Amino acid sequence: MNKLKIKNNFVTRHLLIGTIAISLTFVFWLAHYDWNEDMRLWRAFGDAGYSLLFMTLIIGPLSKLWSHSIFLLSWRREIGIWFAVLAIIHGILIANGWANWDVAKFFGYEFIPQLGRIARLEPGFGLANTLGFVAFLWIVILAITSSNRAMKWLGASSWKWIHTGSHIVFYLVAIHTSYFLFIHYTESFHKTVPPQSTFVIPFILMSITVLALQISSYIKVVRARNRRIVQK
For residues 142 and 166, is the Cβ–Cβ distance under 8 A? Predict the structure, then answer.
């Protein structure tokens, strides 16, 4: 009976977060109505994925700053898994639909007829996609190990070490996203410049919020530790 209850709870939680993930993707797909269909789709998955990454990362520091938010800790795994699902779909859509599984093109190299050879056109593009690819690999690892069975097999300390990588993923994804929001699609780009993404303001607000909460919770933890030392 307990196993059935746990299984039903697992399904219910994932259905709820999955519905939120799909809804966010649809909202961003609608928001990018003036982009071409391929770019519109992978940007929608990317924007929704970043939103779930934001939710995942604010839960920890928020629980340290505001005790009433501790209940959110139990939802962190499901949100993180659905972030991984959206991020992986985003990566596959780009690799298949845009780069056509061409490794050179993915990292910023294209065949130039006038030169008769492959040349690097956008150095920043290659770097941004390299960071995105590293984040992609880490996200896959995090998703695979997001279970009690994986935690038991790896051991608590090893599992925790791997999952501190979610913070590294945040910085990699933030830099990757910043490039495409603020640098790549500009008037200097050698192709037609698409409309500015509607994700710019949400991205800035979410990124600043994550950093502010992380710094604030860190300061609070250090102060609490120092007070305990003084009291001893």
Answer: yes
CA distances from 5 to 2, 8, 13, 18, 201 (A): 5, 5, 12, 20, 41
Handedness of CA 135, 158, 57, 168 (dihedral sign): negative
The domain limits of the chain are: 2-231
| Positive/negative CA dihedral, 32, 38, 43, 45 | positive
Give the model confidence (pLDDT) of 156-192 as tens digits. Answer: 888 888 888 888 999 999 999 999 888 877 655 556 6
Three-state SS at 164: coil
Half-sphere exposure of 127 (CA within 13 A, CB side): 8
pTM above 0.70, yes or no: yes
Angle between helices 37-65 and 200-231 (to 10 degrees): 20
Query: DSSP letters along 87-156, please?
Result: HHHHHHHIIIIISTT-HHHHTTEEEETTTTEEEES-HHHHHHHHHHHHHHHHHHHHHHT-SHHHHHHH-H
Rounded to whole angstroms, the Cα distance separating 80 from 72 reads 12
pLDDT at 139: 93
Distance CA 131, CA 117 (A): 26
Tokens matching residue 222: 């250090």
What residues contact residue 216 under an 8 Å CB cut-off, 6+ apart? 61, 65
Q: Are 87 and 140 in contact (CB under 8 A)?
A: no
